[in-house]
Amino acid sequence: MTDAYTNPIKARLAEGKPCLGAWLMSGSPVAAEAMASLGFHWLCVDMEHGSTDISQVEAVFAATDRHGAAGMARIGSLDGHLARRLLDLGAQGIIVAGVEDAAQFKDFASYCNFPPQGRRGVGLSRCNRWGDDFDAYRTGFQPVLVPMIETVSGIEAADELAKLPEVDALFLGPYDLSESLGCRGDFAADAFNGAIDTVRKACSSSGKALGIHQVVPDPAELQGRLDDGFTLVAYGTDLLAMRHALAGIKDLA
Q: How far apart are the C-alpha atoms of 59 and 67, rounded to whole Å?
């Protein structure tokens, strides 16, 4: 968080600059700080698939902030009450899994923005330094809000989602999307690539960023994502990166 409470990820996305992050599944502040020190723009606590509960989030965000990585959170549903609790703890943005309806997402977004744009409640918490910077945060901060496109219905809603002023990017969840399309794990399938093109066009026509999850921490593959126009990339996870680095032990034993 900066003194002016501008949101660096929101600014980078609006300028079309790459925003490289990763999922934090373990809930460990130590792992979060170690990853943040590598230069990630953002790190996202995975509250959809990971083990982190809300009591751990504050420490994780403090660890990421220490090295200038924006703390974000992924949640499994359009839960506005959970989202604003996470924002109060210092989240710079919220990614929501499996979004399929623009009107529902717009209603969700209202919980994340202060009046008159929304209905987020005000309080004294970490986000505004427990009231010391109440007015600066209240008037200067805007969250990054990102719906994940992971189903056929999500693809159909992509254009309307991208048009929402509250939306900063559309984020593709490749595994769930391929499952929904009937080509589980086949990222070369015509149906899968056609769906990506649909989302890409929706983002382009509305000036929104295009995001995706890259599972394997492979720098060449990451560069390929950037070359393909993805600017919001989740580059692996804390636990998968550790397993990737340590793989092969069984073959040596």
A: 14
Residue 32 CA neighbour count, 13 Å, CB half: 30
The two tokens of residue 75 are 């949640």
pLDDT tens-digit profile of 170-186?
999 999 999 999 999 89
Paired strand residues for 94: 73, 145
Peptide bond just before 115 cis, omega within 30 deg = no
Domain boundaries, the chain: 8-252
Catalytic status, residue 49: yes
Q: Give SS3 for 57.
A: helix
The CATH code that applies to domain 8-252 is 3.20.20.60
Mean pLDDT of the chain: 95
Of 86, 131, 83, give the one whose Cα is nearest residue 110. Answer: 83
Cα–Cα distance measured from residue 113 to residue 253, given in angstroms and rounded to the nearest whole number: 54
Among 41, 49, 67, 213, which one carries the catalytic annotation? 49
